[in-house]
Design goal:
alpha/beta; Histidine-containing Protein, Chain: A; 4 domains; four-stranded mixed β-sheet; 39% helix; 29% strand
């Protein structure tokens, strides 16, 4: 209960202290499930409150914040405001526009070579008074045509380069240019980052983010621990008296090995595993006495 109360207080304070959010947001916490309620003036405020909550801790979030403008804004007025906002970005407005607004929901039309550009337009539209949601009907037409096999390879390489701490736990598939992400990450921001990386890759026309936020980050350590043990065994290092422990990506090796060469090699092997930040090598060289013949 204390942890829930602390989490609720942290989220409420973080939202209340952000000057960009004018409304009063209430926070309900049930274990790691968080529900946001209250009233704000714009979609941008609603999404910002959600982002703040997600950045506090790994949670399951339900956003029930209501958007109510201080005055009634007709859809036609919302449409004009949204189109005016997009016009400030000619490189985006050339291909993507707001076709219509229905009951505060803005519908995007046009074509683009990147879904990241569509996301940018949606962010701009969200700032317009009266916008309650944004729906994209934009056609994605990549400038380059890449096979799904090559697309998977490109996305995996990008994840390995930009998110080496969790890339090994993310599976990537692609079908007709639509990339799907599976697996576990430790934090909400990692889930978002992985999706953004995929969106920015040439040839990607859509991203389905099925990544889970692990409630127990130690699962990553356990996975690394297993990989280290398997790698040491494959390198034919005698593990009979060796203990391997991993905490927050740091590998702790202790026990005895047969030689100095094995001790040093164990550190090298452990250091090569993806996700390992550091190796604390406390291995010592053991010795034994051959029994004398009777």
């Amino acid at each position: 209960m204390q942890e829930q109360a602390r989490l609720r207080e942290e989220i409420e304070q973080a939202i209340a202290q952000d000057p960009r959010i004018s409304g009063k947001i209430d926070v309900e916490v049930n274990e790691r499930h968080v529900r946001l309620t209250g009233v704000v003036s714009t979609l941008e405020e609603r999404e910002l409150a959600e982002e703040i909550a997600k950045n506090i801790a790994p949670i399951q979030l339900e956003n029930d914040i209501v958007i109510e403008s201080t005055k009634v804004i007709e859809d036609e007025e919302v449409l004009k405001s949204a189109r005016k906002a997009i016009a400030k970005y000619p490189d985006l407005a050339h291909d993507i526009g707001v076709e219509r607004v229905v009951e505060g929901v803005a519908y995007l039309k046009g074509h683009s070579d990147s879904i990241s550009k569509v996301s940018k337009v949606a962010e701009i539209i969200a700032e317009s008074p009266g916008v309650k949601d944004v729906v994209s009907e934009v056609k994605i037409r990549p400038e380059v045509s890449i096979s799904d096999i090559d697309l998977v390879d490109e996305v995996e390489q990008a994840l390995n380069a930009m998110m080496p701490e969790v890339a090994a736990f993310i599976d990537v598939t692609a079908k007709k240019g639509i990339v799907s992400l599976y697996g576990d990450v430790q934090r909400i921001d990692q889930r978002i980052q992985a999706s953004n990386i995929a969106k920015d890759m040439p040839g990607v026309i859509g991203v389905i983010n099925n990544l889970n936020v692990s409630r127990q980050p130690t699962s990553f350590d356990l996975a690394i621990e297993n990989e280290v043990i398997e790698a040491l065994e494959a390198d034919k290092i005698n593990l009979a008296n060796v203990r391997v422990n991993v905490l927050d990506g740091v590998v702790y090796l202790d026990g005895t090995v047969d030689s100095i060469k094995q001790r040093d090699r164990a550190r090298e092997v452990a250091s090569s595993i993806l996700g390992v930040r550091y190796v604390q090598n406390d291995l010592v060289v053991g010795f034994h006495i051959e029994p004398k013949a009777a």
